C-alpha cells in the first residue's frame, strides 16, 4: 500500500470512528451516561472523558491537575492509567450535554489537525502508549482504542452495533499484528509450532502464526498442517484481548482443534492490551 494511501485510510477511518461514536453518544439517556461500564471503576461518562482527554493531549492541552493522587485508586495500575484517570476526574462534574459538545468540538479539531499534517509529520518519530513509534502508527492505535471504547459503551448499555467493515478490520488488524507476541511470548508455543486462527465473524478471515526462533504472523498459509487451530468470533477475540471477559467463562464459544493444550494457553493469555 502506498504511504499516502495508508495515511489517508487511517485518517478517514479515525474520522469515521469519531462520527460513529458521536452518534452513539447522542442516543444515550442520562441514566445510560451514568451507568457502570465494563471497565472497573469507570462509568460510561468516564469512558468518554478518557477518549476526549487523550485527543485533547494530542491537540497540545496540558494534563489536568486533581486534588488527590489517582494512583491510590485500586484500578489505576500504571502510569498510563494514571494519566487517563486525571482526565476522568477532571470531567466528572460535566453534564452529558456538555460532554457531547466537548466530544464533537474536540474531534472536529483533531480531524482538521490530521488532515493538515504533512507526510513528514505523519511518519515522524513520537512516543505512543507502548513506547517509541511513528505518529501514523500511533494514530492506528488511536483508531483501535476509540473502536474498542465504542464496543465498551455498547456492551455497558446493551446497544449492539455493527462490528464489521473496513474501519473495524483496520482496528482489529492491530491485534492481528500482535499475534506473534501472544503466541510466542505469552502462550509459549514451542519451536516449530504453527497456529491457525479462524475468525468466524463479524470480521471473517484466517491467518497463521509460525514459530521459527521467533513467533510471527505468516504471509500465507504454510504447507505443514497447523499444530493447533483456534476458531473464534472476532467479537469475542477482541474482548478477550482487551481483558473485558474472563477466558474461563467462554469455552463454549471457542473451538480448539488438534493441540488443545496450546490452543487453551493462547486463549488464557490473550489479554495483552494495557
From TrEMBL:
InterPro entries: DinB/YfiT-like, Maleyloyr_isom, MDMPI_metal-binding. Pfam families: MDMPI_N. It comes from the Bacteria. One of its GO terms (molecular function) is metal ion binding. Transmembrane segments: none annotated. Residues 16-154 form the Mycothiol-dependent maleylpyruvate isomerase metal-binding domain. This is Mycothiol-dependent maleylpyruvate isomerase metal-binding domain-containing protein. The lineage of its organism: Bacteria, Bacillati, Actinomycetota, Actinomycetes, Mycobacteriales.
Amino acid at each position: 500500500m502506498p504511504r499516502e494511501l495508508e495515511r489517508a485510510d487511517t485518517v478517514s477511518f479515525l474520522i469515521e470512528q469519531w462520527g460513529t461514536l458521536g452518534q452513539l453518544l447522542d442516543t444515550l439517556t442520562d441514566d445510560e451516561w451514568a451507568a457502570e461500564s465494563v471497565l472497573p471503576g469507570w462509568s460510561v461518562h468516564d469512558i468518554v472523558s478518557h477518549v476526549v482527554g487523550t485527543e485533547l493531549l494530542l491537540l497540545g492541552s496540558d494534563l489536568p491537575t486533581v486534588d488527590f493522587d489517582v494512583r491510590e485508586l485500586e484500578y489505576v495500575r500504571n502510569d498510563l492509567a494514571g494519566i487517563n484517570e486525571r482526565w476522568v476526574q477532571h470531567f466528572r462534574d460535566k453534564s452529558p450535554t456538555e460532554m457531547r459538545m466537548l466530544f464533537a468540538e474536540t474531534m472536529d479539531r483533531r480531524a482538521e489537525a490530521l488532515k493538515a499534517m504533512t507526510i513528514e509529520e505523519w511518519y515522524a518519530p513520537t512516543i505512543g502508549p507502548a513506547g517509541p513509534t511513528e505518529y501514523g502508527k500511533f494514530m492506528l492505535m488511536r483508531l483501535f482504542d476509540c473502536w474498542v471504547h465504542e464496543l465498551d459503551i455498547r456492551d455497558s448499555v446493551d446497544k449492539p452495533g455493527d462490528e464489521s467493515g473496513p474501519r473495524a478490520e483496520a482496528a482489529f488488524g492491530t491485534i492481528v499484528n500482535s499475534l506473534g507476541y501472544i503466541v510466542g511470548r505469552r502462550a509459549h508455543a514451542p519451536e516449530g509450532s504453527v497456529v491457525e486462527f479462524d475468525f468466524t465473524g463479524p470480521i471473517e478471515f484466517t491467518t497463521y502464526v509460525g514459530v521459527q526462533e521467533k513467533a510471527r504472523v505468516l504471509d500465507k498459509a504454510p504447507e505443514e498442517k497447523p499444530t493447533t487451530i483456534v476458531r473464534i468470533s472476532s467479537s469475542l477475540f477482541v474482548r478477550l484481548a482487551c481483558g473485558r471477559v474472563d477466558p474461563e467463562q467462554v469455552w463454549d464459544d471457542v473451538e480448539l482443534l488438534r493441540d488443545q493444550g496450546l490452543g487453551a494457553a493462547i486463549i488464557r493469555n490473550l489479554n495483552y492490551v494495557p
